[in-house]
Structures are given as structure tokens and as C-alpha cells.
Write a structure and sequence with these properties.
Elements: E1 3-6, H1 10-25, E2 30-32, E3 39-43, H2 47-56, E4 67-68, H3 84-93, E5 98-103, E6 118-122, H4 127-136, E7 139-143, H5 155-162, E8 168-171, E9 182-185, E10 192-195, H6 201-208
Parallel strand pairs: 1-8, 2-8, 4-6, 5-9
Antiparallel strand pairs: 2-3, 3-7, 4-7, 5-6, 9-10
Length: about 220
């Protein structure tokens, strides 16, 4: 049985966040609002829950699940190296609509899919998401839709596609950006823009002090 909590109502928000934290810590899936799109997420270190998330989206491990964090400091325990480029982008765009792909810490006991030793990280600019993440720790979060179907910009969009696969739906209203995050890969010899989304390529290049065409 799933329940939707209206997080625009203070009392419902408190109850919804409490239910979502309990669900995540119990190995369940929850739907949460972010500044870009609605996401479906679980404890990043619960490999069974991550497998359930992939099944809910009808996709396999060839499309690894990103990880959302609730603070800058959380990143230090998740990455292999503290790269200057990563620090620059985090300071410029977090919380916000930029995801970074970096080499993950080798000792992490998670299985996010076929990551080839990397992890995609983001800190969303949404108060409900941040509050949840600060209670649960890092969450594996993917867009709240069936793979190949339109992304969810409202909680009802997500519910219609995912149904009872998520136990808790946190309704934060319509997503303000309604587009996916931009993705920059920092795991190689130079930064590469994998997807231009909420943050324009020109702003990313400017922050890094490079020409926009070098991101391609």
C-alpha cells in the first residue's frame, strides 16, 4: 500500500518525511521531489533495494543509478580523490541541477549497477529532498518513471507510472525546472559534458575556466 503526503502542508510534510525515512531505512522505495524532476530512491548501500529500484523502472544494471547527497561533506567519503575540478563545480552549482561523475571510493559496499568504478553524484536544490537526505544519508535516486517513458514533473505523474512499487510519495508540487540535471564526467583525463540539462554548458565551462567546445 502506497501513500501520498502533501509536503506543502507542514503537518503532512512532517509525517511524510518520517514515513519516508522509515521506508528507506527498512529497504523500501520512496518517491521524492527535486529541483529538476521527481525521483524514486532508496538507501544507496542497500543492494537489494537498489535492485528493486531497477526493476521498478524496468531497466538493468547497464544503466547505473545516480546518488543524491544532502551536504557537500558527504562527498568526501564516496569519492576516490578530491579533485579540484569536482570541488569547483560543487561550490559553483550545488545544491542544484548539476550531476558529476567521479571515481568512487574503492571500499564502498554498494552495487549501483555497471558503474566501472565511478559514481554519479548530485545535491538537489529542494528543501524536502535535502531534509530527507540528511536523515537517511546518501540515496540511490533515479527519475521517477518507467524507463523510456516521460519523466515525472508531478507526484501524480510518478504515481501513475510506478504505482505501489514505492511505499511513500512525497508531493512537493510541480518541479520548478522540469528538466534533467546536466552531467559532467570528471573520471577521465579531462571534463566531458555527457548531458546538457538544467545548467547550461557555457556556465559549466566558465566555472572550470575552459572553452565550452572542450567539454564535448
Amino acid at each position: 500500500m502506497s501513500r501520498i503526503y502533501n509536503c506543502l502542508n507542514p503537518e503532512d510534510r512532517i509525517n511524510g518525511l518520517s514515513a519516508a525515512v522509515s521506508s528507506v531505512k527498512g529497504g523500501g522505495l520512496v518517491v521524492l521531489p527535486t529541483d529538476t524532476l521527481y525521483g524514486i530512491g532508496c538507501d544507496a548501500f542497500d543492494n537489494r533495494a537498489v535492485a528493486d529500484l531497477l526493476r521498478a523502472k524496468h531497466r538493468g544494471p547497464d544503466m547505473p543509478v545516480p546518488v543524491l547527497v544532502g551536504s557537500w561533506d558527504t562527498v568526501h567519503g564516496l569519492v576516490r580523490d578530491n579533485q579540484p575540478a569536482a570541488r569547483t563545480l560543487i561550490e559553483a552549482f550545488w545544491p542544484g541541477g548539476l550531476s558529476i561523475v567521479v571515481a568512487q571510493a574503492p571500499s564502498l559496499p554498494w552495487n549501483l549497477g555497471d558503474t566501472r568504478g565511478t559514481v554519479m553524484l548530485r545535491m538537489p536544490l529542494h528543501p524536502v529532498a535535502i531534509e530527507l537526505l540528511r536523515e537517511t544519508g546518501p540515496m540511490a535516486v533515479s527519475s521517477a518513471n518507467i524507463s523510456g517513458q516521460p519523466p515525472a514533473t508531478t507526484v501524480e505523474d510518478a504515481r501513475q507510472q510506478l504505482g505501489t512499487t514505492a511505499s511513500v510519495y512525497l508531493d512537493g508540487g510541480t518541479c520548478p525546472t522540469a528538466m534533467p540535471s546536466s552531467i559532467v564526467d570528471l573520471s577521465g583525463a579531462r571534463p566531458r559534458l555527457l548531458r546538457e540539462g538544467a545548467v547550461p554548458a557555457g556556465r559549466i565551462a566558465e566555472a572550470l575556466g575552459i572553452a565550452p567546445e572542450t567539454l564535448s
